[in-house]
Design goal:
The complex is a heterodimer of chains A (165) and B (280). Chain A has one domain: Arp2/3 complex 21 kDa subunit ARPC3. With 165 residues, chain A is an all-alpha fold. Chain A is globular. The two termini of chain A are 29 Å apart. Chain B has 280 residues and is α+β, with helices and mostly antiparallel strands. Chain B is built from four helices and twelve strands; from the N terminus they run H-H-H-H-E-E-E-E-E-E-E-E-E-E-E-E. In chain B, the strands form two sheets. In chain B, strands 1-2-5-4-3-12 form a six-stranded antiparallel β-barrel. In chain B, a hairpin with a 6-residue loop joins strand 10 and strand 11. The chains are: A mainly alpha (165), B alpha+beta (280). The interface between A and B is large, with 50 and 46 residues.
């Protein structure tokens, strides 16, 4: 793992997520893709388990920095990123549909946990939050696998392709 | 001469390298750090967010401008732009409301001279929006802070209408709690009604009027103004217009009033903070 590249990459994606992702907003609910969620799944799939734990919490911290309250996304991303990394040791997530499904499920679960934790922190409950989580996870899952290739190129990681024997 | 050989017990090296940490420990440490962030006071943890916004304010502003220009549709063949039209409409509504208040005062005091309540004595601090609302979070971070005279509770204007209040301040940045945020509660008055009410954000793009009895007559299009607040706002300023009015499903004796903000908050790139009684 090239940690300097990782740090620069996370910073760039965080700034893009905070400043420019509005361009991609869709529907009247203003649903946007979550590139940090896509990165979370990418690192959970393509790194070894120890690295995946560190990257999951770091990506969560980056999501908190541009979010409403600190801590909730760090915990939820860290927890579900770690779970995904362990799951990947058992089930191979290399086909694009599986990667999409992983992004979607992680997005829904991590988003729900982050929302519940933010309620614990006294953040106000907003309406239609589950709709936004669902929409954002779905949007991210559609874009995510196509974002994996440039991410792997930047991180100088090999992305082994699934081949039928 | 024979050498005597003695066997010395040497401890077997642990499989793990010296200095390396197990996965379980890494996970535990990071989880603890996350928990500390969750339980730490918001004003402390916000410093991370403010620092990020301050350090990356240029790329964030550029990104926001790009996304705003990308989302702006082609202007129609109007003489003035729609945004300017909206600004002027809001200004006109504010002046009209102030004039009405003056007339009322003059009638009440029958000729007594009154102090001109307006924003003339206030300082309007212009600020650029660094980051807009993210992930449904109805807050803005602006590039003015405590060193510019900003304080919590001050009203923030966008296109001459109220868009929120300052909720957190650091030395050079501040967070604006938008009127559309569920935690925003602002005293307001609907034109034509002799009653003050409270408006609360619905977490989306509009605002709800709280606890307004159905005995009051309302209609769609009525203007909604923020009430005066001593030390923070000396004149009523427009917030928005009534966009929908129906009986509350939960309590049929109350109206369920939806107010549409007077400006498109998502497209704002600069705002003005009302500082009453400035130091200088």
């Amino acid at each position: 793992m090239r940690w300097l590249r990782f740090a620069v990459f996370i910073l760039i994606v965080t700034v893009l997520q905070a400043g420019m992702v509005d361009i991609l907003a869709a529907t009247r609910w203003n649903v946007k893709p979550d590139f940090l969620l896509i990165l979370l799944v990418f690192f959970a799939i393509y790194c070894n388990t120890s690295e995946a734990i560190v990257t999951s919490f770091t990506v969560g911290f980056a999501a908190d920095i541009i979010g409403s309250a600190m801590g909730s996304q760090t915990l939820s991303f860290g927890l579900f990123g770690t779970l995904l990394a362990y799951l990947h040791r058992v089930i191979s997530i290399k086909k694009i549909p599986y990667q999409s499904a992983a992004i979607f499920m992680t997005g829904v679960l991590a988003g729900t946990l982050a929302y519940l934790l933010s309620l614990l922190k006294g953040q106000p409950a907003s309406s239609n939050v589950y709709g936004v989580i669902f929409g954002s996870s779905l949007y991210s899952s559609l874009l995510g696998p196509f974002f994996f290739l440039p991410s792997a190129w930047w991180m100088r990681m090999k992305t082994p392709r699934f081949r039928r024997k | 001469m024979t050498r005597k050989q003695t066997r010395i017990w040497v401890p077997r090296h642990n499989k793990r390298r010296a200095g390396s940490v197990s996965r379980r420990m890494v996970f535990t440490w990071f989880t603890l750090a996350g928990l500390i962030l969750v339980v730490a006071p918001q004003n402390l943890t916000n410093k991370f967010q403010f620092a990020f916004a301050r350090i990356f304010r240029w790329p964030l502003s550029i990104g926001r401008n790009i996304s705003l220009s990308a989302r702006t549709r082609q202007p129609l063949t109007d003489v003035v732009s729609r945004r300017e039209h909206g600004q002027l409409q809001n200004h006109l509504a504010n002046v009209t409301e102030e004039l009405l208040q003056k007339h009322r005062k003059v009638e009440e005091l029958s000729g007594l001279r009154d102090r001109l309540y307006a924003l003339e004595g206030a300082k309007l601090m212009l600020a650029d929006v660094i980051t807009g609302s993210i992930d449904g979070d109805n807050k803005l971070i602006i590039n003015r802070g405590e060193s510019d005279g900003l304080a919590m509770g001050q009203f923030v204007l966008g296109d001459n209408s109220i868009i929120g209040t300052i909720s957190e301040v650091s030395a050079r940045t501040a967070k604006v709690n938008l009127i559309t945020d569920p935690s925003s509660n602002i005293a307001a008055r609907i034109v034509g009604l002799d009653v003050e009410t409270v408006i609360q954000g619905d977490g989306k793009d509009s605002v709800k009027v709280q606890l307004l009895s159905i005995k009051h007559k309302l209609k769609v299009g009525d203007d909604v103004y923020a009430c005066k607040k001593p030390g923070l706002l000396d004149t009523a300023i427009k917030i928005g217009t009534v966009a929908g009015c129906k009986r509350d499903d939960g309590n049929p004796l109350l109206w369920d009033v939806t107010v549409k903000p007077a400006c498109d908050i998502k497209k704002l790139s600069e705002v003005a903070v009302v500082i009453m009684n400035p130091q200088q």
